[in-house]
Amino acid sequence: MLILEEAPAIRRLVGRSPAICRIRDIVKTAATFPSTVLIHGESGTGKELVARAIHEHSPRANGPFVTVDCTVLTETLFESLLFGHEKGAFSGAITSTQGLIRSAHGGTVFLDELGELPAPEQAKMLRLLQERTVLPVGCTRPIPVDIRIVAATHRDLSAMTEAGQFRRDLLYRLDVIRISMPPLRECAEDIPIIAQSLLQNIASTLGVRREFSSAALDALLLCHWPGNVRQMATCIERAAVLCSGEIIEPAHMELNTAGTPRSDVNLLERSSAETVRFAISASGGNLSAAARRLGIDRRQLYRMMDRLHLREQVQQTA
Is residue 199 a contact partner of residue 240, using CB atoms and an 8 Å limit? Predict the structure, then answer.
């Protein structure tokens, strides 16, 4: 999947749903304080994107943003990888290393999938959060670090504490500011906006011109998206590559919409109509401006309005 890092993270948090608007507001507020943030959400919902947005809006924006993948922090790797080691501390330690935590000094540490940490490593992480010091392997004196902690997980940490799988005191340290990322299926009104934004970035990176057909937009709305935005980006990139012309059709994305309840279809259609109406209203009735707000061109907006039976409604209110 193409990773597009040029735009600020907050601008890549596209969407008009109340949930996404609230997340953007929380990001801007939380960024100004040094408090620890815990981001919860399914895979592919944009947890790291939110973490980066917090960092970029914080006083630490000019400092490093260091991602720690907690799924690979085994007992043998934890201290050396995170805290570093001194030369000769163990066999093979031919040089000293500072570790990921010290490399983030003055910036932000993003602890991705913190819920995967084994119990012994949870105690060490708790000590880091409490004391803001590290003890490199082979060193006898703790070293202070100036870091801001943002953690993320797809797991229910509260349920894990009840089951004895996660330290309650660590959860208390982490859960100062919580941000819950909604799955894409719960923000159906954002699907056209997100899809258009992804297509614009992917087509630009590939050096091609692409747009969705009305049928393709319908197919996107009907998909359940268990992999959320990450899955959508993969489907759109595949379509942009395989499409022989400029128009992307459903077949190019190879989507599986089987089993979608009819009630979901009505919900998605209604949500999409609300999104278009909002864009037109927010643009003062200027359809060109509304199309730009939705990330599409004017022709696509007309087709979307016709599909949703909105053109007559807009003309009546104009």
Answer: yes
